[in-house]
Write the structure tokens for this entry.
Amino acid sequence: MSGKDKNLHNMSESESEQEGVDKEGIEWIMNLPDVPMKLPPHVELQRTRVECKADAPIHTDTIQYSGAFASMGFDNSLRLDNFRNNFKIEVIDLKEDDIEFDMIGIDPALANAFRRILISEVPTMAIEKVLFANNTSIVQDEVLAHRLGLVPIRVDPRLFKYSDKDAPNENNTIVFRLHACCERGKPRLTVTSKALTWLPNGSEFPLVSDKSVSNSKPKTYTSFSCSQNTLSKEFSNNPIGPKDSDIILARLGPGQEIELEAHAVKGMGKTHAKWSPVATAWYRMLPEVVLMEEIEDELAEELEKKCPVNVFDIEDIAGKKRATVARPRDCTLCRECIRGDAWEKRVALRRVKDHFIFKIESTGALPPEVLFTEAVKILEDKCERLIAELS
Amino acid sequence: MEHGSFTDETKSTFSMADEDHTLANALRCTLNQDPRVTFCGYSIPHPSDNRVNIRVQTTGDPAREVLKDACQNLMVVCQHVRNTFDKAVLDFNLTKPKEKPVGDINIK
């Protein structure tokens, strides 16, 4: 094995040296008619598919090294024009908060980078500080504050800045007010997120330490220079508020009262999950079900019954029943169909290594299609920053 | 930050603060597909430090330039992904007009 490795290594070195000396050299060689541009079918299968056997999946790794197949004359390096020709995206379903799309012809490392960024690095606004004026409910201050933090807020985070160490102002803070009171003699009151009202002019609580009586306008916990209504047309047409108005925050008994102010700021999911813009973002590789031989009559019926998600259909051709793979996308790779004697030889379960079925469920701050574009932009920014650091 | 030698530019370790698997694994993947690279790998020295080390060894070019090229490639790939995605969403909206949003409960 080590000898073989060394061989591969040398070949790639000489190849790249050639490329270094004469850029056209390698292109010229690759374009020769007798240079194999395809791998032999069994190796190609190993390269592009994960095979799910009854006991365990095999060929699960992605072969990334550019010279991995050098001994067979196959170039495994990244060629941008190749990538451009092969890369495809198909949107399967797009709803207000969900998107499902197929991403074909990309490395898992990149698909995973997009997923990770979606979960932990796309910013949103979430309630970070809660100022209690009164809380006589049985929900403790800290518990209520935590519940408030998790309420998704419907506002475009791109219109705001990170607050960092700045004083809270109209560009980095959104203030909500909540005042609920259950009068004596009345039935219990359920406080929902609907009770959160947006204060476009900032906090209304005066600073306790501020003793300057002469000022006409008392200092508050935020210093807004203007109303947020004037910042963007979007705000005045579509006031900021919780995405869902029916999230239960607390229940009040007779005589109990909650009065508070909640300050929302911009943040990222890696700091706290409340800032994550997605409920989930995930992908799976496309399942591929192949019948290795014709499966007919009783066997076909047996196969159709075996599958719990109805991947197979039975075709009736001139009185002969034949099994077909009708819905491979539904396959969960439960491997029920390859259990039992000889079935593993009849049915092959595989996954396509570079075909990702991507799903994004937005919490509502941004539509899911915008979230994905934002995630890709963030990866670009990371590269740009690294290039700047290196030069 | 780069850790390498002055005499041999072809081998270097790059230490990046505030990065994690997201960028490091994507870069490792693009670097490995570059024929000038003989070895590339990354590690996170300690899980509670926000830092990754990327090791790059090349056949002759300076490791720093190769890493820069990989970043450039990754950016081009990202741009292409974004354009393709935008086009796919546009196509989808044209063929299957989005169902009207079910009256937003927040607007009275």
Remarks:
- The first strand of chain B starts at residue 2 and ends at 4.
- Chain B has two helices and four strands.
- The CA atoms of residues 35 and 59 of chain B lie 9 Å apart.
- Residues 2-95 of chain B form a domain with the Gyrase A; domain 2 fold (CATH 3.30.1360.10).
